[in-house]
Amino acid sequence: MSKHFSKTEFEYPVHRICGKISRKSKVIHSCTASGKYTTYLQGERDLVAHPVSQDELDRQATFKTRQALVSVRLKKTASTYATDMAAYRAQCETGYKSFVKYIWAQVIEAESAD
Question: Is the model's pTM score more than 0.85?
Fold first, then answer.
C-alpha cells in the first residue's frame, strides 16, 4: 500500500475527494471538520495579483509571538511547566484534550487580558 494514500469515495460522478489525486497534482481537495469541501491550487503565490497586506503581516507577527510563548511553556524545564500540567490534568475531563491545545488557550487568554 502506498505511503501517500488519498481517501476517496467513488460514485458516478465522484462524490467526495479529500487530498490530492496524485503526487504531481497541484489541486488539493480539502474536507473540513464542518463537513464542507473546498478545492484550491497548491503552488507559489502570485504577489502581483495577491500582494501581502498589512493585516496579513500583523496576523503572522501575532502567531509568531504566540508560538514562541507556547514553545517556552511546553518545555519540561520551564518554571511554569509543573503548574501548567497540574491545571491541565485538573480540567482534563471537561476541557482541552491535549496539553498543547491547553497551553495555546492559556497564552491567548493571557494576551487578551493585557
Answer: no
